[in-house]
Specification:
five-stranded mixed beta sheet; 16 strands; single chain; alpha+beta
Length: 628
Amino acid sequence: MNISGDKKIRNFISIKFLYKLKNTSLKNKLIFYFIVAIILPVFILQTFFYYYVTKQVTKKINNLAQFNLSQTKRIIDATISSYNDLVYQIFTDDEIINLVKKIDYSTNNDEKSEALNELNGKLTILSYSKNDIRSVVIICSNGKIAGYDRTTGSSNITLWSDYDDPRSTTIYKDAIKYNKNIIMPSIQMKMNDKGIINIAKKMYDLNNINSDGIGVVIVSFNENSLLSDETNQYNVNKDGDNKNEYNFIVDDKGNIISFPIEKYIGYNLFDLRNDGSKVNLEDPINRFVDISYILDGKPEIINKIYDDNTGWTIVNVIDRNYLFKDIYELHKIMILFGIIIMVFTILVIIYISGNLTKSIKDIVKAMKAVQNRELTVQLDTNVKDEVSIIAYTFNKMVMEINKLIDEVKYKTNKQKESEIAALEAQINPHFLYNTLDSINWIAIEHEEYEISRMLKSLAQILRYSIYKSNEIVSIREEFEWLRNYVYLQANRFTNCFDYIEDVDENILDFKIHKLILQPFIENSIIHGFEGMHKGGVLKVRGGVFENGFIKIIIEDNGKGISIDKLNIFQNIDVDDDIITTRSFGIKSTLERLKMYYGDKFKFSIDSKVGYGTKITIIIPIIRDEVMT
């Protein structure tokens, strides 16, 4: 009875809610429907998207980590193989075998000593065949040790010198017992140097394979060669800071034999277990990562791979928070943004819903008026009805139309003015050329030939400068114009300087933009030779700089530029509007060079007060075929 009563109550509440919703205001309906139909699904989708992205990213990270671990495993196997090759090279070397036999069986002490010294020399050379080798030794069957230790720099003091009888070591016994290469980390042998990997192999007398062996060759190398920069993208430094990701290697005994932080090398993972049982390494590895606080206790992603060749497990640990930091921040921003949007939207709906019951006749009427080209019509936006926003937008649209019409009229008038100005600019130069030509003939009639030459040069300069100022011309034409310009400037400055032109004929037919050199020439003449009466030299050189570029050098022996002003010239920013008057022409020219050639052009200026100024311009070659 109670269950049935509760069901009736829930049904009654549902019916009552639906009845109230049906009879509530349009504003409340819009708010409710909007929340149910839009905002709620958006938040559900957002949550689903977050967890889906997190899951997919984790999956891809694990796949990538496994791939990187596979690559690391291959590199480690290749590293071990290279040391195995070195071991093989030693125990198959006839000379080394004969020397070991002399040490083992010779009854002549001098012969033994000589053989030992010679063997030490050979093994010393082999110990430097790889960068990470610690030592290369041979433990002879009689207990003698031959070899070299790179850390001590000695053949007498090696990793094996601490043992009274190195033949008692586990690695020696295993090498004699098993006919294969023995790989044994130093931690398994309780050696003082924990970060060492040893590879041992039994040596035979090749003339008597069935013998018990004449000794064991052992190559020892540093563990950090297994996880070098190429195999381990360490984000852990020696002090354990900046910890985001790290790799380490665990042997089948649970010993850490390679780790980016030295203090953890030799740590036994099974020591973490109370019962000391040796089960699958997964639990001890996870436990070690958790309690070691290498990542400061942050959540981690752990991946590992087993190496059948060595019996080692290679482990990769990644800081999960570091990888997902951006996703976490994005999720927070999305939640905050969603709340703001929801609040804002509800407020807008509350406002709009109060105005949706009024007529839109005024809008329709106003639209028809605009259709009949009555562009002064405006709607009353003071009435707060359902179309108030539409009315405002409509008024704004009409105003924009009027504004656009005014802009079209203005631009049309400006275009006409520009056309007239262009026509005037076309007429004025012709008038100026004709006037100069008339003055020139008058100068000739009066036998003023120098004035005539100056007038002809000026006319040519003006014609060249005014007509299509941005045109591309040949370097030959540019230098012909330049001679006329320098000639006029020389007369202006009472021939206080000489002009020298040294241009490679091979570049004369290349193209260049007009009037690129004039501002630099003008700057040298006006400012460089200012106050000079004679002795000035202006030299312009040009030639091929390198494949695809030409170099033009403008050099004078004038006054030079002070260090302060030189710094301004050397650091002119073509995008900086604050410039000095003297640098305006150069800045404008550099702007043109940047516009024409982009970042391909180079400009430099050197000067010393009292010695002159040297300007170097390097620009790309423009050939005739580029112009076609």
